Amino acid sequence: MPIGDKKGGFNFPGYDPLEVADAPALDSVTPGDNSLVVAFTAPSNTGGGAITSYAAAAVEGGTAATGTSSPLTITGLSNGTSYNVRVWAINDYGPSFYGSGSGTPALQRGLFLGGNDSGGNTNRIQYISIPSTGNATDFGDLTVSRRELGAVSSSTRACAIAGSAASESDVIDYVTVASTGNATDFGDLTDGYLQTSAASNGTRAVVAAGNNGSNTNVIEYFTIASTGNASDFGDLTNTQRSSQCLASSTRWVRCGGFTNIMDYVTIASTGNAVDFGDLAVYTSPYYLSSGNITSGTRGIIAPVTNNSGFQTNIIQYITIASTGNATDFGDLVLARTNSPGACSSTTRGIVGGGGQSGRINAIDYFTIASTGNATDFGDLLEANQYLSGASNCHGGLS
Q1: φ and ψ at 91, to 5 degrees?
Q2: Same domain for 287 and 175
Q3: Do the Cβ atoms of 287 and 242 come closer than 8 Å?
Q4: Is residue 249 located within the same domain as residue 292?
């Protein structure tokens, strides 16, 4: 129902400011492709009557969405344009004062970075549109060819972190996710590492450094919007490599590696990790997907093993805000080993590449909020393993 169609609407007589509801609290504005998803909390004071609907609008866009509950999705916007966003509660006496925020729509794009293909270690970056299905497209090149790297992303920028080049690498480089082109130097980790893993919120990247001749417990961090070298964050609860990292807007969780242990830190602070729980299934040594798959609430672990050629298709999940052991989610389409790349939107998880008897190019997807088996998405440009993934729309950004 368009705003203003009920008695007391914006442009109709009968509006009574003493009887309208209090303003909803605008909790978050999440970018979508030509859209913004507006999450809000209903007011406790509903005024002189029950709330019949809510409305959210992008002020500069002249477009609005209505509905009876949070969230509301405003469509018809332009990617890359910043909008002031307002949300109202409406009862029979009219619209409330508004809760306000801002957001910038963006392509929901996933990246696969580096890895090892038929030519050896690669500098290739490729991308997909996460809401659709289909094969990957060439994006550009990293500054250094490498595999077993980590990756993080904000809503605008993705960073490739360390990995194995001719030897352990300390290189961090970055790209603008919504464009295409070659990566630019960002800075360095404190040492050269391979089998790194990382995840981020919209501001800070947190890195489980991996292996620099032996497994380490090192955690490092950097600010994604700037450039420069990483700094020490603290220590994991044990030494490890080849783990998978997940992040909400507040918490970072390291899952497995050459262990079944999960631990976590608060992203905005620094300090040592605390025990979270254990993986539900573990076979050592354990190469997990490299990349952040999260809705903001739920984190997905797509573990795969390399134990005398053994692969699995097992998917597990955790609730990031709590602690406890992982739970079975379902199965990938193909069993894999050797660190496939992973990325997500707030609703869909993606896993691409990895190994079986050799490298594979298959990409799978699944719905994060449900449980069940994955579905075929498409293919990478070439069969690839030991790669990493990132996106500009994962749940850690909200």
Answers
A1: -120, -170
A2: yes
A3: yes
A4: yes
Answer yes or no: are the C-beta atoms of 265 and 294 closer than 8 Å. no
Q: Are residues 213 and 338 in the same domain?
A: yes
Overall domain count for the chain: 2
User: Which residue type, as a one-letter code, is found at position 351?
Assistant: V
Which residue, among 297, 299, 280, 298, has the nearest Cα to 289 in the 3D structure? Answer: 299
Stated as kind and residue range, the H or E segment containing 36 is strand 35-41
Q: Tell me how crowded residue 341 is: count the other CB atoms within 10 A of its CB.
A: 30
What residues does 72 pair with on adjacent strands? 38
Tracing tokens 């995840």 back to the chain, one arrives at 199
**Hey, how many other C-beta atoms are within 10 angstroms of the C-beta on 111?**
26
Mean pLDDT, contiguous 10-residue spans, the chain (398 residues) = 41 73 93 88 95 96 92 92 95 94 90 96 97 96 96 95 92 95 98 95 95 95 98 96 94 92 97 96 74 95 68 93 96 92 95 91 97 98 97 89
Structure token digits, residue 240: 């490890």
Looking at the structure, do residues 80 and 154 belong to the same domain, yes or no?
Answer: no
- Say whether the peptide bond before residue 285 is cis (omega within 30 degrees of 0): yes
User: Of 73, 103, 133, which marks where a domain is finished?
Assistant: 103
**Helix and strand numbers, DSSP H then E, in the chain:** 0, 35
Same domain, 155 and 196: yes
Domain contains 77 = yes
Q: What pTM, to 2 d.p., does this model score?
A: 0.81
Residue 356: partners with Cβ closer than 8 Å, 6 or more residues away: 311, 334, 335, 336, 337
- Can you give the residue range of the structural domain that contains 326? 109-397
Distance CA 129, CA 365 (A): 12
- Domain assignment present for residue 265? The answer is yes
Question: Alpha carbon 387 to chain centroid distance?
Answer: 16
User: 3-state class of 395 per DSSP?
Assistant: helix
Cis peptide before 71 (omega within 30 of 0): yes
Name the maximum alpha-carbon separation found in the chain: 76
Those residues with Cβ within 8 angstroms of residue 132's Cβ, 6 or more apart along the chain or in another chain: none
Which of 68, 103, 138 is a domain's end point? 103
Domain check: are 114 and 232 in the same one?
Answer: yes
Residues 6+ apart with CB under 8 A from 320: 246, 247, 248, 251, 253, 294, 296, 297, 298, 299
Q: Is residue 2 part of a domain?
A: no
Residues 135 and 75 in one domain: no
